[in-house]
Amino acid sequence: MKPLALLGALLAGAGCAACPLPAVAQSTPTLTLERALELAGVTADASQGPPNPRVTGPRAEVDAAQALVTQAGLGPNPDLSLEVENVAGTGMFSGLRATEYTLSAGLALELGGKRAARLDAARADVDVARLRERIAGGDLALAVRQRYVAAVAAQARVALAENVIERNRELARIAGELVEAGREPPLRSLRAQAALAGAEAELKAAQAEALAARFALGALWSAEPAPPPLDDFPRLEPPYEVLADYQGFAPRLAAAERIAAEKAIGRERALGVPDPVVSAGVRRFEESGDQAFVVGVSIPLPFRNRNQGNIAAAQAQARAASAREAVALADYRQAVAEARADYLAAEAKADTLEARSLPQAEEALRLAEIGYRNGKFELLEVLSAAEARDDIRSSLIDAREAQGKAAALLIRLAAR
Predict the structure, then answer these.
(1) CATH 1.20.1600.10 residue ranges in the chain?
(2) DSSP assignment of 262-329, as one string?
(3) Are the C-beta atoms of 147 and 104 separated by less than 8 Å?
(4) What pLDDT is attached to residue 16?
(5) Which CATH architecture has domain 2-75+110-272+307-414?
(6) 403, 235 in Cβ contact below 8 A?
């Protein structure tokens, strides 16, 4: 009866690990999702440390756009000119006796609303830059959430693989003792050893994937792998009202780019209006010592260049921006619908596996153990029942991972 006792102890120990997300003992501090968001620089209370280029880059673009607003509000500089006439000529103009000195200042007068058009276009570019900054932050938050979920799932697969190895190792021992006792053919022992070897290979693969997942998560804020995540999947509640109002970042950015393109048309049209230059100064006649005021005005003649090429280009860019806005809105609606469908499907699958399939598999394993103890089932049937239960646990991990990633995407799509 010793083999039966060993089998009972094995199955009792495996039953303790039947929860959908087995715990993994960690020797290092664990990482929460909130802390991961802080380390990446997503939240307002981010920890002090080197700035995240994924955030500081778009923020610098906003600073650049705001500086261009300041520049757009500046008018043209005045110019100062000095003219010396009748110098070193012949006859009465020899030497400096008939020299005339003219000192004048000129200023271009901006017509056609150039300054207002420049300011409108520059401010529209600021709106675009700010939206891109917020989109960069939203994309970073999405990456943190999804990679954190992937790290939790990878860690759970490691724990599951360790449970499978433990079970297969004990089954291999039991099978060996049963073969020695003459109750099982030698083939049973060979099968058990093969299953153990396969489980050990699966564990190594799961450990490699878990480390890669931690490296992927840590790469969002450093060059080191992230600390081990918590054992449980984070609770990510997607905003279900996202389908009621299609005003996510993508449509808003496309609309802002269209507005900026339209403002650029007004700026280019204003540049097509010629600006007169008004000048005033003083002229001194060296021969008589007299002085006189000089007033002048110069106006460019727009016979050829009326900025028509830039105006046409701005109009074409506005049409292209309008088309991109329509495409962005359609793509956004499709992305929301797909993400919501993926979330609901993964949630339903996970709930079904956890509430129905896994308990049924546990019951089947319990009955297989009882039947084996009474001599009605073979060891292979017990092994098959345990493998079926582990497959359900693996599917549950996959479903929870898919659910978490879809929820993270919905949160990103609903951000404003």
Answers:
(1) 2-75+110-272+307-414
(2) HHHHHHHHHHTS---EEEEEEEEETTT--EEEEEEEE----SS-SSHHHHHHHHHHHHHHHHHHHHHH
(3) no
(4) 37
(5) Up-down Bundle (1.20)
(6) no
* Residue 190 confidence class, pLDDT cut points 50, 70, 90: confident
Query: Cα-flanking dihedrals φ and ψ of residue 349, to 5°?
Result: -65, -45
Per DSSP, the three-state class of 96 is coil
Q: State pLDDT tens for residues 256-273.
A: 999 999 999 999 999 999
Q: What is the DSSP letter of 355?
A: I
Q: What is the residue type of 144?
A: V
For 77, phi then psi, to 5°, come to -80, 145
Beta carbons of 225 and 36 less than 8 angstroms apart = no
Which DSSP letter does residue 18 get? Answer: -
Determine contact, residues 393/160, Cβ cutoff 8 Å. yes
How far, in Å, are 168, 298, 381, 394 from residue 387 at the CA level?
10, 92, 10, 10
Contact 119, 104 (CB under 8 A): no
User: Amino acid letter at 12?
Assistant: A
Distance between start and end Cα atoms, the chain: 67
Taking the C-alpha atoms of residue 192 and residue 201, their distance in angstroms, rounded to an integer, is 14
Pairing of strands 277-285, 100-108: antiparallel
Q: What tokens appear for 79 in the block? A: 């110019």
Query: Which run of H or of E encompasses 72?
Result: helix 53-72
Residue 375 Ramachandran class (φ > 0 left, ψ -120 to 50 alpha, else beta)? left
Q: In the chain, what are the helix, strand and coil shares in percent, each to the nearest 5?
A: 65, 10, 25
pLDDT given at position 245: 60
Nearest to 157 by CA among 28, 26, 24: 24
pLDDT at position 206: 95
- CB neighbourhood size of 48 (10 A): 4
**CATH fold group of domain 77-109+273-306:** Outer membrane efflux proteins (OEP) (2.20.200)
Delimit the CATH 2.20.200 region(s) of the chain.
77-109+273-306
Q: Which H or E run contains 344?
A: helix 308-352
Looking at residue 49, its pLDDT comes to 58
